[in-house]
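Field guide to reading this record: the first block holds the primary sequence, the second block holds the structure written as discrete tokens, and the final block holds curator observations. Each block starts with its own label. This record concerns Putative NAD(P)H-dependent D-xylose reductase xyl1, catalogued under organism Xylona heveae.

BLOCK 1 — SEQUENCE
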Amino acid sequence: MASPTIKLNSGYEMPLVGFGLWKVTNETCADQVYNAIKTGYRLFDGACDYGNEKEAGQGVARAIKEGIVKRSELFIVSKLWNSFHDAEHVEPITRKQLADWGLEYFDLFIMHFPISLKYVDPKVRYPPGFTYDGKTVVPGKASIQETWQALEKVVDAGLARSIGISNFRAVLIIDLLRYARIRPATLQIEHHPYLTQPQLIKYAQGEGIAVTAYSSFGPPSFVDAGMDSAKGVPSLFEHDAVVEVAHRHNKNPSQVLLRWATQRGVAVIPKSNNQNRLAQNLHVNDFDLSQEDLDKISSLNKDLRFNDPPSYGVNIPIFA
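BLOCK 2 — STRUCTURE
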């Protein structure tokens, strides 16, 4: 069963459900991507910062070689890291990331954060993370406009079919749209019932920008990453409201949480090491929640954000 798609403002179709590569280990990444393709996934969401693009590309190459899928049937997403925002570094790093994947183009290339950091040569450290020297965060000088216009040239060069943004607040999108020659095709944000961000989603979708949710299950990924902001937060999988809706629809809580997003036109990029759950996460569009169900889950909002730089020791409060 193929995932339904969203028509992007660039004219391309993006699957509504994909596989996220954040925190997928180098040792398992190739096999996980390969198995996800066999299961039916066609969208893979990666990034320089995840440090596993070579392995992800190996999984893709294996599936293509075995005739399971054609490159044209896949939708590969990657992201521009903060250290490469200067205009002269955008195209070279895009080419490096494509080489790591073993691809000629990305279907979507996203500005990972609206943050410019001082350039770190990939030969010195890659991925560089938030620090310049392994210890110190050093701001860069590139404006969002400079970086965006360099990304537009990446599209002109045929290295990416669409470009997008991530972790942007509405005010930054409003500013970007003033000068964008190529409008962002997507906005990727943290989005789960504890952080619903309805006004941001409404604004983006109203501007023809598709929204993709990351961390659709809320705390678990951040607990695994050792982030204090997620410790002690009740699991959404066990929340009475989610469990009740899941029981009524004969689905599991993860499927309900994903359907809560996709039914409102928000794409999702979950991951799982479990083969059964992998298939379940992909097949979340064969049932509908009632408006009462949607409202009940949305009412769990606490404006609780887990992916915030200060929460992991980086004093760049972009969401303040």
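BLOCK 3 — OBSERVATIONS
The longest helix spans residues 87-101.
The first strand starts at residue 5 and ends at 7.
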